[in-house]
């Protein structure tokens, strides 16, 4: 399934690189505390600091998650982050949601956050999501990708639906989506570089 290599993914407009400590800047932390940006985050009511951002980053490393910084190529601005947690041989993860369903081996849970309001709905944000989907299916060979949103997060719901995710469960506040490899349609070309 996955060899746990973390390459850089790049096209003309956007660069996805493995998240590092260098990305935990004051600007990044301030964005995590911005009500317009964090209004759909589960931890939105908790104050974020460099220490809590570092702890989250270290947890992603410890869990062997794919945690990427999304950067605009032209001016090297951080646009957001993408996280992918994959079920594997020695671990199965629980979908964080209202049903507690365990995801099968060979599947993943994806999270996505735009941390710069200028890029809400931008070409770069859409392309980075599509690049990461292609990487997940065609390089990591995942069978399915799951994602959850709040019902009121119209932008995230629209993004998932336009990328062929199917709504598989909902309750009063949340939606759960799934995209299988057979329903995935490649939309973007990019390079995989610095594979080490």
Describe this structure in words.
- The chain has 196 residues and is of the alpha+beta class.
- The protein has one domain: Gcn5-related N-acetyltransferase (GNAT) (Aminopeptidase), CATH 3.40.630.
- 26% of the residues lie in helices and 28% in strands.
- The protein has 5 helices and 9 strands.
- The protein has a 9-stranded mixed beta sheet with strand order 7-8-6-5-4-3-2-1-9, with helices on both faces.
- The chain is globular, with a radius of gyration of 16 Å.
- The model has no long low-confidence stretch (mean pLDDT 85).
How much is the average pLDDT?
A: 85
Please tell me how large the radius of gyration is: 16 Å
What is the helical fraction, as a range of percent?
25-40%
Distance between the termini: 17 Å
> What oligomeric state do these chains adopt?
single chain
Spans of at least 5 consecutive residues whose pLDDT stays below 50 are none
Q: Proportion of β residues?
A: 25-35%
Q: Which word captures the global form?
A: globular
> How many domains make up the 3D coordinates?
1
CATH architecture: 3-Layer(aba) Sandwich
Biggest β-sheet: strands ordered side by side in the sheet: 7-8-6-5-4-3-2-1-9
Order of helices and strands: EEHHHEEEHEHEEE
